[in-house]
Design a protein that fits this description.
This protein is an all-beta fold. The chain contains no helices and 11 strands. A hairpin with a 6-residue loop joins strand 4 and strand 5.
């Protein structure tokens, strides 16, 4: 199992920035991808960004391209999401998640951290 702990959420005004961090522990050698998901009230959880644990290749959903940057530090077993030019539509609970080698789903989850962007 992989344990994940997020930090860094909060309240920010439109156009502001926040940096989310995720610390992984446990069977970190089994991580294939890590991702940031978010869920706004009344909406489904969506994948915002993902990163390959091995080569660092990245994926972003269209609505955050050019504003968010995902990164990882394999030595420290951490992942981050730098969020710039935040918009009220980015308000959600953000979750860190891991997808393990030989798995097709993200099966390990953090507890979530609230991001609120005021207009």
């Amino acid at each position: 199992q992989v344990q994940l702990v997020e930090s860094g959420g909060g309240l920010v005004q439109t156009g502001g920035s926040l940096r989310l961090s995720c610390a992984a522990s446990g069977r970190t050698f089994s991580i294939h991808y890590m991702g940031w998901f978010r869920q706004a009230p009344g909406k489904e959880r969506e994948l915002v960004a993902a990163i390959s644990w091995s080569d660092g290749s990245t994926y972003y959903t269209d609505s955050v391209k050019g504003r968010f940057t995902i990164s990882r530090d394999k030595d420290k077993n951490t992942m981050a999401l730098q969020m710039n030019s935040l918009e009220p539509e980015d308000t959600a609970v953000y979750y860190c998640s891991a997808r393990r080698i030989l798995s097709t789903v993200y099966g390990d989850w953090g507890q979530g951290t609230q991001v609120t962007v005021s207009s």
